[in-house]
Amino acid sequence: MTSFEEAETEETVTCLHMTFYHPCQDNKMMFRCLNFCKREQVRADEVAKFGRDSNVCRYNLMDTRVSRIQFSLQFYRKLNSSQFCFEIKNMSKKTKLIVDQTELGYLNKIDLPWKCIICFGDYQILAEVQEGESVDYFETHLHLAEVPILQERCLPSLQPIPENGVSSSLFPSQGKSPIEIDENES
């Protein structure tokens, strides 16, 4: 056997990609302590904390409006499964954490979806999980967004579209109530 054949099988590593945005990031430089250059290894048994306190948090946000510990991420494996996940917990007593449309109060926690947007205050973070196999550690890869992750969009309301294919939400109804028409009438 050659040394290649005897070599350990290479494991893939779960990587959490996080893209950060704040409207004042150019002026206030609140992300100056984050490492956007390369992937960073985090031990699987370590809780990754994000916040203002550099003595406690691995990921520091330099902003007095951010809590000492804003939120934490815990890496874990689901019971009776080989699937790895992250759990996100709001650690701020003053600020609610929004994960997609779920609002988390102080000490509330949920499983982090594979792709989601995390918001608190004016901060927007796009989180995307890249699956891996390693049980010893995971990686984080931080990115900086130039434009808001959440774009205000004018979406029509989720109303049923009539069979003629024209949505009433596209035209102002100007206070008119709906009129029911028999399908045999034209």
UniProtKB/TrEMBL annotation:
<keyword id="KW-0391">Immunity</keyword>
<dbReference type="Pfam" id="PF00498">
    <property type="entry name" value="FHA"/>
</dbReference>
<dbReference type="InterPro" id="IPR008984">
    <property type="entry name" value="SMAD_FHA_dom_sf"/>
</dbReference>
<keyword id="KW-0399">Innate immunity</keyword>
<protein>
    <recommendedName>
        <fullName>TRAF-interacting protein with FHA domain-containing protein A</fullName>
    </recommendedName>
</protein>
<dbReference type="GO" id="GO:0045087">
    <property type="term" value="P:innate immune response"/>
</dbReference>
<feature type="region of interest" description="Disordered">
    <location>
        <begin position="165"/>
        <end position="186"/>
    </location>
</feature>
<dbReference type="InterPro" id="IPR000253">
    <property type="entry name" value="FHA_dom"/>
</dbReference>
<dbReference type="GO" id="GO:0005737">
    <property type="term" value="C:cytoplasm"/>
</dbReference>
<comment type="similarity">
    <text>Belongs to the TIFA family.</text>
</comment>
<dbReference type="InterPro" id="IPR033621">
    <property type="entry name" value="TIFA"/>
</dbReference>
<feature type="compositionally biased region" description="Polar residues">
    <location>
        <begin position="165"/>
        <end position="176"/>
    </location>
</feature>
<dbReference type="GO" id="GO:0043123">
    <property type="term" value="P:positive regulation of canonical NF-kappaB signal transduction"/>
</dbReference>
<keyword id="KW-0963">Cytoplasm</keyword>
<feature type="domain" description="FHA">
    <location>
        <begin position="49"/>
        <end position="121"/>
    </location>
</feature>
